[in-house]
Amino acid sequence: MTVRFGVHTGLQRTSIAELQGLWSRIEELGFDWISIWDHFYAADGTGDPDNLEAIVTHAALAASTSRVRCGSLVYSAGYRHPAVLAKAMATLDQLADGRVTLGLGGGWLAQEYRDYGIPFGTAGERLALLRESIQCIRGLLTQDVTDFAGEHVTLTGARCEPKPVQARLPIWVGGGGERVTLRIVAEHADGWNIPFVSPEEWARKSAVLDEHCAAVGRDPGDVTRSVNVGMAFTEEELAAQFGAIAEFVRPGVLTGSTQEVIDRVGAYVEAGAEWVILAMRSPFDRDGLERFAAEVLPAFS
Fold first, then answer.
1. Which helix (H) or strand (E) covers residue 271, if one does?
2. 104/125 Cα distance (integer angstroms)
């Protein structure tokens, strides 16, 4: 199986200028994907509010690059009405000339919801909103007029013009919940992403997704499958990037010698991953990125 590589750039404790320099180098190094996350606070449990807003940064990414796919991993369905997000993505795809992939998830960082006064609800409620949001966004991006009557979202004669450059702007779902999230992927998504799991766990969840696809009568091959992994050749680099959550993410971190990293990537590919996306956050390990591009990418070309 052919695998493609990308980089997921976290938005905490950084600047647009720093990110633009990083994005340019990522594109030069031959990666095919760059994405951003959607948080109001740092995604490391510290509660640090030093974090850039997602849609504006996504637009900066699109304007600062010319070749890579410009993704999001992932927008929280609870932070914006789906019609607002659809309108933003349609316009963003115009800016990116058809290079946008919309990643969407149910949301998880409870402090953001609480501090901003956004209803957090139960996991079931957040996933129900995710399911409805995907349907609404799909309709708005592809249909002349969209009507939708759900438990959380209502659209009446809603229109979204101009449309994206892409006839079908890809919508990916992020998460690994086996009973509901992966069912939503099978029913509605073009792609699936999960972060920081081992190749073995990724393979197991991918098999669950296959079962859901069979249950809804969908070809499993229609769902693009990806994994976000950390990259830390040394323990010092792991601690610098991930701090208090280093042990939590460790199962999905590429580390060790070059050959060990190649073997680990190969395990994801053998399990069926079509995209391996390096999840980086400030302080960005630019040396590690250069090393990965020079020593690991050629093994999969």
1. helix 258-271
2. 15
Q: What is the DSSP letter of 292?
A: I
How far is the C-alpha of 99 from the C-alpha of 32, rounded, in Å? Answer: 11
Among 164, 162, 58, 156, residue whose Cα is nearest residue 104 = 58
Phi, psi of 57 (to 5 degrees): -70, -35
Other beta carbons within 10 angstroms of residue 144's beta carbon come to 9
pTM of the predicted model, to two decimals?
0.97
Q: In sequence order, which residues have a C-beta less than 8 Å from that of residue 135 and are 6 or more positions away?
A: 148, 150, 188
Under a CB-based contact definition with an 8 Å cutoff, are residues 244 and 45 in contact? yes
Query: 251 — alpha (psi -120 to 50), left (phi > 0) or beta?
Result: alpha
Domain layout of the chain by residue ranges? 12-224
- Give me the tens of pLDDT residue by residue for the chain, a chain 301 residues long: 689 999 999 999 999 999 999 999 999 999 999 999 999 999 998 999 999 999 999 999 999 999 999 999 999 999 999 999 999 999 999 999 999 999 999 999 999 999 999 999 999 999 999 999 999 999 999 999 999 999 999 999 999 999 999 999 999 999 999 999 999 999 999 999 999 999 999 999 999 999 999 999 999 999 999 999 999 998 999 999 898 899 999 999 999 999 999 999 999 999 999 999 999 999 999 999 999 999 999 999 9
Residue 252 DSSP one-character state: G
Using CA atoms of 66, 104, 6, 252 in order, give the dihedral in degrees to the nearest 10. 170
88: DSSP letter? H
CATH 3.40.190.10 fits 12-224, yes or no: no
Task: Note whether 66 and 45 are within 8 A (CB).
Answer: no
